[in-house]
Amino acid sequence: MRVKGEHEIYCCGARVRISERGVEVLTEPTVEYCPLHEALYGTKQIDVEAVRKSVEMKIAGFGFCCGNRAFDSEPVVAYGASEMMRVWLEKRLIDCAVVVCEGAGTVITSNGELVQAIGARLTGIIKTSPIRETIERVEADGGTVLDKNGARIDQVEGVRRAFDLGFKRVAVSVAGFQAKAISEIRAFEAGAKADVLIFSVCNTCVGSADVKHIAKADIACASASRILRNEIGKRALLQLGMTIPVYVLTEKGKRLVLVYLAEFKDKLVVFRTGKLPYYAENKGPRLMGLFTTKSLKC
């Protein structure tokens, strides 16, 4: 597999540059263990070398950042944004999704399979550059690329473009390092006479200043963030999972999540609680040298 262009992502809290020169881990990871990372890549201890190897595995196995990128729409995680958006599109509960794809940037589509094929193994994309083959595949599968020349990532403009295309019920994923976009979208949503469901993702590296923006989302993935567990988890109406919990923050989000769960194929346990977030000992990611899983409750 041959990488095309230059791309930057977050992986386990580390900033990573991917280019034709190879994979460069630019910063130290902030996570020392992640159960999802272990399940996907067999990693029991995360360090710079483990991050590099996992990204190289993604390139070799799935064509990540390559011209022959795999577009596999099989579900990968139980409560992922792309998995849920696919169901919502297929059930016609939303009109389109605004997501991010490496090699294309912001993408608008009403094709649920394309949403899942893009997001299945995606991690937080900071910036990307255009890959002709990826853009052509996205367009062939019913996607609109916001910026074909520059592969710009701009979820705010992506939602605006969705409105211009005539979509009124829009779901959008917003990465934690772009959390301000959530407030920007909420600011013009009402005036557009449209309905936007915001799914906050890739939140491992968020800071306290991001909380006020993420609190305006409908659904937020905790990732490995202690701040999300403490500050957003307590506002949740519903929590999905314990290992990497997903918090549902609004009635609209709750309605759509319950539809997703009705289509979920695995067995579920549902119970009532007087307080969220709900924790279990020795579950979930461990942050590098700072907190144990247990201390995430503090």
Task: Report on the architecture of this protein.
This protein is of the alpha+beta class. It has one domain. The chain has ten helices and 14 strands. The chain has helices at 35-41, 48-62, 81-90, 112-119, 132-140, 155-164, 180-189, 211-214, 226-232, 251-263; strands at 7-11, 14-19, 22-25, 31-33, 96-101, 105-109, 125-127, 143-145, 169-175, 195-201, 219-221, 238-240, 246-248, 286-287. Strand 2 (14-19) and strand 3 form a beta hairpin.
Quick summary of this structure?
The protein is an alpha+beta fold. The protein has helices at residues 35-41, 48-62, 81-90, 112-119, 132-140, 155-164, 180-189, 211-214, 226-232, 251-263, and strands at residues 7-11, 14-19, 22-25, 31-33, 96-101, 105-109, 125-127, 143-145, 169-175, 195-201, 219-221, 238-240, 246-248, 286-287.
